[in-house]
Amino acid sequence: QGHSKVALSLIKANADVNQQKHDGVTPLHIASQNGFSEIVEALLEARAEVGLLSESGQSALTAAFHGGHRAVMSLLIKSMGGRIVPNTGSVVSKTGSANFFDELLSGSALVEYRLSQRLSSALCKSGFVDSRAALQSAVADVLQAILQNRRSDKSFVVGSYSEGWGNNLKTLDGRTDSESDIDVMSLIPGRLYHLRGICSADCSDAKEHVDYINGHVKIPGYASSPATPFHGSSLKPAVDQVDASRLCRYPPIAPLQPDRVIKSNIPQHLLESLRQELLASPCHVVHAASPGQDGEQLR
Hints:
This protein is α+β, with helices and mostly antiparallel strands. The chain contains eleven helices and nine strands.
C-alpha cells in the first residue's frame, strides 16, 4: 500500500523480500507497478530478485513500464548493471506501444535480457533463492560450531556448502545429496606463513616469509593433494577433510581495490561485510598447485 516505514521495518526484520503470491507476484512487482520508488530501492538493497516473473510472464521492470514509473524503471535498470538502455534518466517511447522494450533493446542486448529473465526465474523456481542459501549457510555455521566444540583441532566448514550455493548439482530442491560433499578444513597447529611484502609491520621478525603470485604461494616440497574424501550415505553427506596452513593475513582482494570500488555495482554494505570478514576469518593455503607446478606451490 506504499507505507514505506512499515516496509522498511519488515525488511529490517528479515522478511522474505522474494515471497511470491499464488500468481508469482512479489513485493518488488507490486511496488514497481505502483511507483513506490523508496520501497523499490529498499527491496533492491535487500537483494530482491529483479528477474522473478509472475505467472503471466511479467517482470518488475515491465510492471513499472506499464505503470509509467520512470524513476522506478531507472532503479531497476541500474540494479541490473545499467546495460538495458544507455540513458536511464531520459527513457522516451517513440511509438507509445507495448513494443517499447523492443525499441530500447536490440540484437544481443535484447537476447541477453530475455535469457537473463528466464534463467533467473528458472533458478528461483528450482530453489536457488537467497533465503535457502542463507539457511544453508547458517546450517554450515552451526555444523562448524559443533565440530570446534567436539574436536581438538581448529576446524572450519568452508567451500561452496558454507557459502550457501553449492548444496549439490543433482537436485535443486534444497536437500543435500549423499555425493554433495562438505569441505571441512583443519589448520595444521603451529604452521604460519607470512606474505612477503604484504603482511603488516608486526610480522617483520617472522621467519617463514613466502612469495605470493596469482592466488598461490611458492612453497616447495608438498604433493598436490588438497583433500581426503569420505564418502556419504543416505544418513550422512560426503565430507572432504582438508588440511591447511595459516597465512598471517589475506592477500589483496580484487573487489576491494580502490580502482575496482569506484566502478563497482556491489552495494556498499556488502563491500563492508567483505572487509570485516577478512579481519575475522583465517586465511589459509591448501596443498593444491597450478598445472605443472605440483610440489612447488600451495593455493
